[in-house]
Amino acid sequence: MKKVVLLFAMMVFAAFAVNAQTEQQPVAPAPAPENPNAPVITFEKTVHDYGTVKYEGDGKCEFKFTNTGKEPLILTNVRSSCGCTVPSWPREPILPGQSDVIKVEYKTNRVGTINKTITVESNAKNKTEVLRITGQVVKEQEAVTPEKPKSIGEK
């Protein structure tokens, strides 16, 4: 009986000892001071509306941007929300005041609404920018000749 009481007491003591220990919260690193000379990416437009595009038509567009900061701008990644949208971008630094373009090709082999995003990541103050393409892909209407109205009594 003494062993059971002693075992129970040790378990209670161990439970209190475990609860008494406090978890140390990780200390968040201090935010880096903002660079006043950092590059800034400024787009002429952030949405391109194709309007109505024919099936397998031209799905190309461009987003022109300018480095309005004081240091070279480097685009680190440009990705689309879908495999049907293929972006290409300059890999070399864009100097302050210079402009360049991000080319986008939407594969118009699907009929329906276009609503895709292109995410641009860079070393700019505005590190992430989201561009959007919209529109509608339609099949070209085949010429349909209206049927001649049937006369009464015709089969």
Element-level helix/strand string = HEEEEEEEE
Taking the sheet with the most strands, its summary is: 4 strands, antiparallel
Q: Could you tell me the mean pLDDT? A: 84
Distance between the ends: 106 Å
Name some characteristics of this structure.
155 residues, mainly beta, Immunoglobulin-like, four-stranded antiparallel beta sheet, 8 strands
What does the secondary structure layout of this molecule look like, with pairings?
Layout: H1 2-20, E1 41-43, E2 47-54, E3 60-67, E4 75-80, E5 85-88, E6 99-106, E7 112-122, E8 128-138
Parallel strand pairs: 2-8
Antiparallel strand pairs: 1-3, 3-6, 4-7, 5-6, 7-8
Walkthrough of the structure:
It is built from one helix and eight strands. It has one helix spanning 2-20; strands at residues 41-43, 47-54, 60-67, 75-80, 85-88, 99-106, 112-122, 128-138. The protein has a four-stranded antiparallel β-sheet with strand order 1-3-6-5, with no helix packed on it. The chain has a four-stranded mixed β-sheet with strand order 2-8-7-4, with no helix packed on it. 12% of the residues lie in helices and 38% in strands. It is elongated and about 105 Å long. It has a domain at 41-138: Immunoglobulin-like. The chain is mainly beta and 155 residues long.
Short description:
By secondary structure, this protein is mainly beta. It contains 1 helix and 8 strands.
